[in-house]
């Protein structure tokens, strides 16, 4: 079995305070098998890992602090090893919005998505549905990742979130790009995830596909702090991208 990826330090220092998560959570991956090309996990049910190199840099360009590049879309996906239980800590903004631990979840890019391939990848209808892993993979990863973060709430109230969403060129199944995201303030128990990050992602995609911002800039902004990504890029008035009928929430 391949080794699990090493969790290299990433992201700039922040004033946000790390805390161990409490609260509720949800399996928002339910029903995401539609359009997925993911294969079933091996019959033994043993997680495996493609072990992408944590030192690899994004193929979309960048500098010494470039976001790691993941293995990209696969013809079939396998369950990826997650950080050891209790080794990751949530951070929270002043408004109590959750952010991931940059050591555990620095983000990882899809090397197939570059500034030169936007029209044939994320700006093409149906692209993300074609590359999304199935719930037979992600539901098991979600449970393990909740233990990584010490998440104690109901998994039905949290989202197994791509830090760099698929519609922003994030890797589909690199564990560095996935985290159990707790509910945001205002969450109603039993209503499932309430994730304002989805709206931010949709607006960033619209800006990328219309040429208002560059792919790498959007990826860097959302990995640093999804709550400030739009303001940092001057896109607070941007409208969300038109709904892709083949896409799903939590892209």
What does this structure look like?
With 251 residues, the protein is α+β, with helices and mostly antiparallel strands. Helix content is 18%, strand content 6%. The protein contains five helices and five strands. The strands form two sheets. It has a three-stranded antiparallel β-sheet, with no helix packed on it. A two-stranded antiparallel ribbon has the order 4-5. A hairpin with a 5-residue loop joins strand 2 (90-92) and strand 3. The longest helix has 14 residues, at 135-148. The radius of gyration is 16 Å and the shape is globular. The chain starts with 16 loop residues before the first strand and ends in a 19-residue tail after the last helix. 49% of the residues are buried. Residues 1-64 have low confidence and may be disordered.
Global Rg: 16 Å
Average residue-wise pLDDT: 80
- Considering DSSP H and I runs of 4 or more, what fraction of the residues is helical? 10-25%
Determine the strand fraction and express it as a percent band. 5-15%
How far from one another are the termini? 29 Å
Q: Could you state the order of secondary-structure elements as H and E? A: EEEHHEEHHH
Main pleated sheet: 3 strands, antiparallel
Low-confidence stretches: 1-64
Strand order of the largest sheet: 1-2-3
Give the overall form: globular
Number of helices: 5
Summarize the structure.
The chain is α+β, with helices and mostly antiparallel strands and 251 residues long. It has 5 helices and 5 strands, in the order E-E-E-H-H-E-E-H-H-H. It has a 3-stranded antiparallel β-sheet, with no helix packed on it.
């Amino acid at each position: 079995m391949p080794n699990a990826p090493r969790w290299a330090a990433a992201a700039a220092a922040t004033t946000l305070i790390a805390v161990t998560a409490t609260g509720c959570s949800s399996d928002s991956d339910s029903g995401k098998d539609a359009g997925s090309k993911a294969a079933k996990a091996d019959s033994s049910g043993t997680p495996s890992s493609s072990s992408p190199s944590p030192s690899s840099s994004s193929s979309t360009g960048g500098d010494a602090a470039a976001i790691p590049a993941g293995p990209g879309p696969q013809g079939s996906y396998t369950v990826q090893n997650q950080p050891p239980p209790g080794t990751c800590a949530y951070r929270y903004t002043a408004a109590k919005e959750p952010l991931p631990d940059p050591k555990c979840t620095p983000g990882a890019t899809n090397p197939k998505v570059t500034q030169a391939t936007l029209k044939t990848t994320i700006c093409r209808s149906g692209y993300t549905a074609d590359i999304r892993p199935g719930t037979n993979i992600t539901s098991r990863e979600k449970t393990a990742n909740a233990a990584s973060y010490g998440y104690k709430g109901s998994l039905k109230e949290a989202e197994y979130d791509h830090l760099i969403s698929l519609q922003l060129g994030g890797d589909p199944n690199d564990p560095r790009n996935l985290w159990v995201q707790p509910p945001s303030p205002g969450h109603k128990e039993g209503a499932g995830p309430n994730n304002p990050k989805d709206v931010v992602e949709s607006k960033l995609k619209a800006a990328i596909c219309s040429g208002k911002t560059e792919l790498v800039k959007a990826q860097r902004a959302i990995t640093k702090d999804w709550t400030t990504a739009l303001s940092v890029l001057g896109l607070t008035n941007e409208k969300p991208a038109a709904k892709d009928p083949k896409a799903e929430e939590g892209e």
